[in-house]
C-alpha cells in the first residue's frame, strides 16, 4: 500500500514556557521549589493538573494568589486541540487531536457497560513497521511528550464528561520506543493524587522490545500491566509481519515475558492478531499453546479488522472459534476482542489517514 499523505493542523505560536502537564508529583515538587515555592505546591499542582484537569492556574484556588500568578508567568498548562471526532453505532468514539506543532494523533474511547477504556497513542507514527498496521505506513514522525500522552486522557474526559476507568497504550506508536515519556506518563496516570487509575487497569502494550521490557519490569516504581503483541508462532512467520522479530526473536521475547511474570507476580497478556489465512490455523493455535507453556499468560485474540487496501483478510468466525477452543482446551485464559468501531475505522492510524485523504475512504 502507498503511504498516506498526512494533513496537519495549523501549528500554534511557540510558547517558551514549560508545560507542567504530564510531570510526576516529584517533578512538580522540584519545579515548585526551584521557583521559590513551598514543596507541598507539588502535590497541589498534581491534583489540579491531573485530577481536576483545570486549564488555568487561576482556578487553583488553594494556591496563594502570588504563586498562581508566578506559575502563569513561568509555566503553562498544555492542551491538545480536538480536530475531529467520529462516533460508532456501538458507542466507540474516536478523537483526532492536534498537537502544538500541528501534528495529529488519535485516541479511541471504548465504552463497555461500566467500563470506559481509552486507547492512547504514544508517538506520531511508528518506526516498527508491522505489516498489518496502518500507522506503520507513516513511519515515525516524533515521540509524544508525557504531557501529550496524559493530555489525551484529560482532554477526552473534558470532552465527554466521563471518567476513564481503563487505559491501554495501544494507539499509534510503540510505547517502549518512547521509554522515558511513557514511564513518566504511567506514573502520572497511576498517581492516586493525580489521575488515579489502578495499575491493573493501565496496560502497556509492546511489539516486543526485549531489553525495554526487562528494564520496565525492574522499575518497581512504575506500576502497570504488560501486554505483548506476538501475532505469530515461528520466527519466520513473525519476521514476515513484524520486522522487530529480527532483532528480538520469539525465544528471547517469551523469556522476557516469563521474567516479567516472575518479578511482578502477574501473568501478563499476550495479544495475537488473527490474520485470515496467515496465522489462524489449528496448527498455529497448537504451536502457540506449546510456545507459551513456560509463562502460561492470558491470551487476547484480536480478529484482524481488514480495511480497504490492507494486505491481510479478516479471519472467519469459524477460524476464530476453533483457535480459541484449542487454547482453552490447553488450559489458557482466552479473551476474544469484540470488533469495536468498525464503522468508524477502529484500527490505529485509520482515523488519521481518513483526515488526510477523506476521498479514499469507503
Ligand atoms: S502495530 Fe504498534 S508497534 Fe507495530 S507498527 Fe503499528 S503502532 Fe507500531
The CATH topology of the largest domain turns out to be TIM Barrel
Q: Can you identify the CATH superfamily of the largest domain?
A: Aldolase class I
Report, as a whole number of angstroms, the end-to-end distance. 16 Å
The gyration radius over C-alpha positions equals 21 Å
CATH class wording of the largest domain: Alpha Beta
**Cofactors, ions and other ligands in the entry:** iron/sulfur cluster
| Strand percent estimate | 15-25%
Largest sheet: 10 strands, mixed
Percent helix range = 25-40%
Mean pLDDT: 90
Strand ordering within the main sheet: 1-2-3-4-7-8-9-10-11-12
Count of alpha and pi helical runs: 11
SSE sequence, one letter per element? HHHEEEEEEHEHEHEHHEHEHEH
Low-confidence stretches: 1-6, 348-362
Mass-distribution shape:
globular
Total number of distinct structural domains:
2
